[in-house]
Design brief:
single chain; about 500 residues; alpha+beta; Glutamine Phosphoribosylpyrophosphate, subunit 1, domain 1; Rossmann fold; 2 domains; six-stranded antiparallel β-sheet; 17 helices; about 25% strand; binds iron/sulfur cluster
Length: about 500
């Protein structure tokens, strides 16, 4: 075999947290599959490893799914095949389960009273124990995904009618779920009792639409009605929309990271316009961590809104000193001979002539391992920056997420083992400033439009990845399974070693 001197490596995973999934559903529309396709198109940022749509044509379920992007997979023929006036769709970023095609959603099942298609965004933290129990009782699983546990629980539920069956099935699970279930006579949408992941209701003519984010409504011309409340189940059928409270209302814990990074900036999530919240985070950074500088430079795309907020408040001009290549695929061929910062350069490059001799404030949404920040700062210095001050529009990330987000282990999170000054030295910044958890939540809360959000003023947030305080307690078995008994101290005072991080550069 000829050695080409090149190797193909994935662009993802990069040094970011990753949202796991997008869900979309519609009931009572003559072009259900096309609307779902467009909804998934708008929600592509929530999962790039696979996509699927199921439609209900009378009592007949039609399913198409593939390991591909929405734009790559669906064709006129596929959408024509997906007949029916109700539909659910899913984009997946694999973590719970494997990455094979059989683990893609919608999951389908055929019960005595008809077929069901289910899509789930979130993570069931007790899925392993539930699965073992179900397998002991004879259940046969067709996939490795946690969501399949739900299918079995719904099938076995002894409740009379759908609402009661769902209530009994969901009573057994712990964790996060925004899920949709499509039946011949209706579409159901449910959010877990703490409302970790978003789920909104829209209206398109006479049809109801459910989606992970409101940006999907904007693309298909649907009007935002309201969010599904934490612990609420909505049943949509030809009579309209009915609400059922499956769990009594208690203070919610929606994921604060949706506002920091995951959601699209043009969405309204948990009643909060995402773009405005991100600008406010940047503005607060300028107040809490001021610095003398000549230019504010965002790390595109997620650093743009906070950088604008920083620039507005500080009076320092903003310019696009880093340019992102938007046409990066999912893998690239890397030369064998090392090129400095190659991985980052595939996506980002510094603008020549702009940064020469300048004191730069570089603004990003978060630091995960620190490896990307280090390369970006080195790239800015290579382009002539005299000083580089890093500002982060969130708090230090110290713990992994178990509620539907793909995160590295605790030991790989630079802030779980290193103090700010140590991180500053590692990323080679002249100064480094993070927001505190309190400042972050205060700014975000101020943006809330309570109307229709399902989250009253008093509702808090899940901030476990910033604090290590998980809103759902873990059993001993779950703690072992999730590595929560690791012996890392929150801060290692002698942490001069970054060996556990990417040693490159
Ligand atoms: S742990 Fe972090 S990413 Fe996960 S749900 Fe909570 S805030 Fe969101």
């Amino acid at each position: 075999m000829i050695d080409t001197g090149f190797r193909s490596i994935p662009v993802f995973p990069d040094d970011r947290f990753h949202e796991e999934c997008a869900v979309f559903g519609i009931f009572g529309h003559p072009e259900a599959s096309r609307m779902t396709y467009l909804g998934l198109y708008a929600l592509q940022h929530r999962g790039q490893e696979g996509t699927g749509i199921a439609t209900m044509n009378g009592r007949h379920l039609i399913l198409r799914k593939a390991q591909a992007l929405v734009s790559e997979f669906y064709t006129e023929t596929i959408l024509d095949d997906l007949k029916g006036n109700s539909s659910v769709g899913h984009n997946r970023y694999a973590t719970a389960g494997g990455d094979s095609e059989r683990d893609l959603q919608p999951l389908t099942a055929y019960f005595s009273d008809g077929p069901m298609a289910l899509v789930h965004n979130g993570n069931l933290t007790n899925a392993v124990e539930l699965r073992k129990e179900l397998e002991r009782e004879g259940a046969l699983f067709a996939t490795d995904v946690d969501s399949e546990v739900l299918v079995h629980l719904i099938a076995r539920s002894k409740g009379s009618g759908l609402v009661e069956r769902m209530e009994i099935a969901l009573g057994a699970v712990k964790g996060s779920y925004s899920l949709l279930a499509l039946f011949p006579d209706g579409l159901i949408g449910i959010r877990d009792p703490l409302g970790f992941r978003p789920l909104s209701i829209g209206r398109l003519g006479n049809a109801y639409v459910l989606a992970s984010e409101t940006c999907a409504f904007d693309l298909i011309g649907a009007d935002f009605v309201r969010d599904v409340e934490p612990g609420e189940m909505v049943v949509i059928n030809k009579e309209g929309l009915e609400s059922h409270r499956l769990f009594s209302r208690r203070p919610g814990a929606p994921c604060v990271f949706e506002l920091v990074y995951f959601s699209r900036p043009d969405s309204r999530v948990f009643g909060i316009p995402v773009y405005l919240a991100r600008k406010k985070l940047g503005s607060r950074l300028a107040k809490d961590h001021p610095v003398e500088a000549d230019l504010v430079v965002p790390v595109p795309d997620s650093g743009v809104a906070p950088a604008l907020g920083f620039a507005e408040r500080s009076g320092i001009p903003l310019d696009m000193g880093l340019i992102r290549n938007h046409y990066v695929g999912r893998t690239f061929i890397e030369p064998k001979q090392s090129i400095r910062h190659f991985g980052v350069k595939i996506k980002l490059n510094a603008v020549p002539g702009l940064l020469e001799g300048k004191r730069i404030v570089v603004v990003d949404d978060s630091i995960v391992r620190g490896t990307t920040s280090r390369k970006i700062i080195s790239m800015l210095r290579g382009a002539g920056a005299k000083e580089v001050h890093m500002r982060i529009a969130s708090a230090p990330i110290v713990s992994p997420c178990f509620y539907g987000i793909d995160t590295p282990t605790r030991g790989e999170l630079i802030a779980s083992t290193h103090k700010n000054e140590e991180i500053r030295r590692y990323v080679k910044a002249d100064s480094l400033g993070y927001l505190s958890v309190e400042a972050m939540e205060e700014e975000i809360r101020q943006c809330r439009i309570p109307d229709g959000s399902g989250h009253p003023e008093g509702d808090g947030f899940c901030n476990a990845c910033f604090t290590g305080h998980y809103p759902i307690p873990f059993s001993t078995e779950e703690r072992i399974q999730h590595g929560l008994f690791d012996t890392l101290s929150p801060i290692n005072p002698a942490a001069d070693s970054f060996d556990h991080l990417d040693p490159e550069d």
